[in-house]
Amino acid sequence: MMSLCHNKINISCVKSSWSNDIRASLYSLMVLIILTTVVGNLLVIISISHFKQLHTLNNWLIQSMATVDFLLGCLVMPYSMVRSIEHHWSFGEVFCKIHTSTDIMLSSASIFHLSFISIDRYYAVCDPLRYKTKINILVISLMIFISWSIPALFAFGMIFLELNFKGAEEMYYKHSHCIGSCSVFFSKTSGVLAFMTSFYIPGSIMLCIYCRIYFIAKGQARSIHDAKQKVQIGLEERNGISRSRGRKAAKTLGIVMGVFLTCWCPFFVCMVMDPFLDYTIPPTLNDALIWFGYLNSTFNPMIYAFFYPWFRRALKIILVGKIFQKDSSRSKLFSE
Question: Which domain holds residue 67?
């Protein structure tokens, strides 16, 4: 028998018809994703905040991104979990707008941070001699401000001013509006704008920078190989270190691009195409793709933190409780 969210049949959404076993399995999976996201990003925040050796400009960006992903896990994902599994929203219309706006804001802010981190890594690898003059405290502060402010203005402005379905009101009330639902709806114009702002522009920046770093690192490796017989041993060792760093940066950004595209590309492609397909994409598929996108925030601390030895050392100190010892903040995590 069909279960409704509201007793007025003609305006009520239909509740989930999944069995208790399926719902229990989905709750277990999503709770695991949420806990991994929250704990992983919290460890990054604690590490960078506590250990003085990690107080660098580049790590400010990583800490800011970890804060975004932590808040996404705490404030957004639990409510999204209930909505996705129960197919019902019982927290009110106003909180629905707040939740949707916060969801769009934090997801977009996480992607913005990834883009700015790639820019920072570009100058660190490709122009190291002028890195400190180009990437200073003012530039990093501006990057962080843009990463938070633009997604916030875009998300809350669009949802609370109801610009997301402006010009497509008839389609909205026909396809998405019912009592007990809290799904985001985009018209053709707002869908394209959201796609460009939150995905295409920052994603294109990341892709271009990755390609640039890859070809520069490859060119440096070729030049070093050709010059091996003409340089002194000490210089060759330094070039070897430079080549190794270039390769490591290229590899890390390659992993970042792969995870980013795998997680977010399916959702944004479906989101921008749905209005042009007369909203025929099933809501269940949209929910699944949203959670696939959330996984990017789950994987971010693994990519940007735990891939580096000094973060693993910081993690060990935290987990064994040595962080509470006197002067633990001055622990040496890597050689200067």
Answer: 23-330
